[in-house]
Amino acid sequence: MSEIRFFALGGLAENGKNMFVIDVDGDLFVLDAGIKFPTSEFYGVDEIIPDYKSLIRVKSRIKGFFMTHAHEDHIAALPHILRELNVAVYATKFTMEVIKDNLKEAGLNIDDYQLNVINQDSIIKFGNVRVAFFNTTHSIPESVGIAIQTVKGNIIYTSDFTFDQSGNSKYQTDFNKINKLADKDVLALLIESVGSSEVRSSNMNLELSHRLNSSFSNSKGRIIVSLFSSDLLKIQNVIDIALNHNKKIAIIGRKAQRIVDIAINEGYLDIPEKSLINLKFIDEKNKNNDDNIVALITGQRHEPFYMLQRMSKKSDRLIHIDENDTIIIMTAPVPGTEKMAARTLDILFRTDAKIEVIENRLLSYSHASSEEIKMMINMLKPKYIIPVIGEFRHQYRVRKLAKDIGYKEENVFIMDNGDVLNFDEDPYVSKGDINVGEILIDGTALDDDNNMVLRDRELLADDGALIIVAHVDPRNKTIVGDIQIVTKGFVYVKESEEILTQIKNEFISISDKHLSGKYVNWGEFKNDARKNLSKFIYQLTKRSPITIPVIISTEITKK
What we know:
Blueprint: E1 4-10, E2 19-24, E3 27-31, E4 47-50, E5 62-66, H1 72-75, H2 78-81, E6 89-91, H3 93-105, E7 115-117, E8 123-126, E9 129-135, E10 144-150, E11 153-159, H4 175-183, E12 186-192, H5 204-218, E13 223-228, H6 232-244, E14 248-252, H7 254-265, E15 293-299, H8 303-312, E16 326-329, H9 338-349, E17 354-357, H10 370-380, E18 384-388, H11 392-404, E19 420-422, E20 428-430, E21 438-442, E22 444-446, H12 450-463, E23 465-473, E24 478-488, H13 497-514, H14 522-541, E25 546-553
Parallel strand pairs: 3-5, 5-6, 6-7, 11-12, 12-18, 13-15, 13-16, 14-15, 16-17, 23-25
Antiparallel strand pairs: 1-2, 1-19, 2-3, 4-21, 8-9, 9-10, 10-11, 19-20, 21-22, 23-24
Helix pairs in contact: 3-7, 5-6, 8-9, 13-14
């Protein structure tokens, strides 16, 4: 009998970093490989990816990475992972174009990788296992769900989805394909949970369009709209409304321009060439302030807020916001950007421009609501349900929704990253079977001693740094010249001479112990100086700056 297991390296009890693994008789099928954006306590970290190292030793068993759509939290870890795990990647054409773009940006040669384009009609065979796909509705084109077809039944992964049918026809769910999958036994359903607490009306897309149309009709000058670059469905909606009002469209944002170019080339964004303009740098003759301009300020995470701040302060090279402009904010804060978003609004209101903030309930319809989750469960009728893609509270809510439609609590598995669900006759979860963690990306991967690196950055942010430099003559066992102290973010030197003098005296006292013997052990000298100076500084100031003693061996030669 076939042995089937499920576990996650990321994406359970968290937002982002989605990476799920189905193990069928030792063959591994990896579903998505995304990043998570850091919150404020991750000082200087650009992004966080799943710790994939446990897969390296079983590389030969991995049948492929199967990608559901082109959002960063589902595909953006691939450039880091493929460097060590060069196995086949499967994705729809649009998603694959974005993956290729990410690989190129990371300096990788795409010809070195096995990049396979699929569509919803593709069926890929791996022994007794088949992998099939079905189109889903999301805020980015060519999103698919994945079905791992085994002898025990289908394991279906929905990824992010909605059943919104009022959107663009290129983003529609294929209900016929879902029904065909439901005709066969569905062993387990891996269903997204982020929107599980939301109860929303079916006309939210229409309500958003009405709100935007009203804003466009009432504007007297330029219209500036902030959007996330990966939310192509909303970008298209704004473009369509702008065209209906005979506006010219300018798209601002380097990252956005690349994904927009891909979408245009693949036919997923429809912008007449005559309506698309490129803004020139502002100078004495050119102000880019024509009344018919609609500027789409696009980027990921904090980028739209940063650009809006720059425009408000009139330091941007393309747009200076003034009282005639209408600013439409369609970028709800994501974790880690809340303070910047609030600060941006405060700065924007100082410009006297007309500011319209679209409420989050109208922007969040790209994730399945409570009713849509129940509808997907009812269509597929799985034996077991595994809530994925969301925090614990979201997963817990899916269990409640499943119980509301007749499922027993023991048939809904709420799991953590690293837990393993074994599909035996009586399925059970073994806790923490797989080694999981996070790799912090700060330009390059910080996968060793992550906690130490972050602790040091936290200390630097809170208490600064102190460097003490001394020249020591090892022959005469004396300190040569003056002891220098350099501080950054600790104390203001000119007003703290007494404190610095006490620190110098403490260093001299520590040095006397190490210079009184026959030989100088430089390693012990530096370690002892660092440890004891840190204690002394805390007793003196109740602060803990990073303390770095620099002890230089300097022999004095007699003339």
